[in-house]
Amino acid sequence: MKRSCPLDANIRVMFPLLGQVGYPLESNQARFYLMETHYSLTANEYTWPPKPKAMVDNSGLRLFYTSTLRSQDAGVLSVGMDPNWRHIIPPGQEHVVSEGHCVGECTQRAFPRDGVHIFAVMMRTHQIGRQIKLRQIRHREELLPIAHDRNTDWNYQEYRRLSAPVRVLPGDRLIAECIYDSSARAAITLGGLTTREETCLVLALYYPRQKELTTCHSLPSLPTVINSLGINELVPGSNPVRIASPPELSGMTLETRLISYDWRNNFRSFQYVTRRGSFKPLCWSAKNQPMPGTENLEGFAPNITKSYKLIRSCSFVGSTNVANVIYQNRNRYVTESETSVDLAADDDDDDDDDIDSNNVIEGAARSKVSRSSVTESMGLSGGPATYRPLGAAPNMFAFLLFIIFLYSFRIATV
Fold first, then answer.
1. Class of domain 73-220+280-303
2. Please, where in the chain does CATH 2.60.120.230 lie?
3. Beta-carbon neighbour count of residue 89 at 10 Å?
4. Where does residue 196 rank: exposed (0-12), middle (13-18), buried (19+ CB within 10 A)?
5. What is the C-alpha separation between 111 and 317, in angstroms, rounded?
6. Which of 217, 258, 292, 314 has its CA 20 to 30 A from that of 332?
7. pLDDT of 314-328, one tens digit each?
8. Per-residue pLDDT tens for 61-88?
């Protein structure tokens, strides 16, 4: 469903209670803004080919606008794990941690000298996400989390204002940290855009708007991925991708390794390698191009020597500790669900590019080997008619892609 509306010149969207900040509605850049709504159906409603069904949509959008221009333009920055099959969540685990890095090299190039101020966030996972935290690292010191949702609900995805804007300086690293509970799943979950896959993203609203950086993600390097699975080397150019070594795995496809891996006994080593191994920083502008100078970056987890300290207590009420008070007021969110939902080496080298061009997922979809619901649930097969997600889901949910988010990512700024 798509709706569009014409705009007048010199208008800005206002953010309530932020009298000096607005999002520019510049008719010289775009004559229309677009709201797009995505729908997802449950397994018992998911048939192929699709059958038309009457549905009622009560979603909507409220804009506050003014012809009185504000002194600051606002922008949107996406921080997190790039949606990709390399984002692997093992099955049968109550606590799986994934981290998406916005490295300091990117904020150093993009942010103004005085930094930017984050004043609202939308934190997003899919069905098995349980917690999301937006961390801030300055040099080797970890500051208070900018935002932390300890009880996420994937049906509730809205921007939420911080009680006070948080300053982020050039060179600061931002980390979107997500915790998943995959204990009800019998097969791995891969990263991706569909609801049967997973994601780890934080969309941050900030001011003043800078024109260099809109997407600041990371992606585990290929060596990190294969090492986390006990693989030493892949067969170059193979499709489907096959394992060359160690000898006991020689000839096995990467897909088979993903399905048959002993996650119960190897989960800890897998988690360590994925969190401490190398990754590819992805720092993109509004023109959907890498920022100059960031194309060949290689990233690793930060070496933090100083962390924030909070006094453990039964309640924050009446606390005289300044850090506790700020932490409580600024960034702790708890999402209450309104519905009961049961949930069942070198970085980015030539070999790295080869495996993406071979496309593990599409290669598996073309295979003539019959696949169980386990294979389908990990997103490695392309036939929607056999998809059987574990557990029930709501009858329907709608993702509202907020106008600000859509415009920021699709319209080039100059």
1. mainly beta
2. 73-220+280-303
3. 24
4. buried
5. 36
6. 217
7. 544 444 455 554 555
8. 788 788 888 889 999 999 999 999 999 9
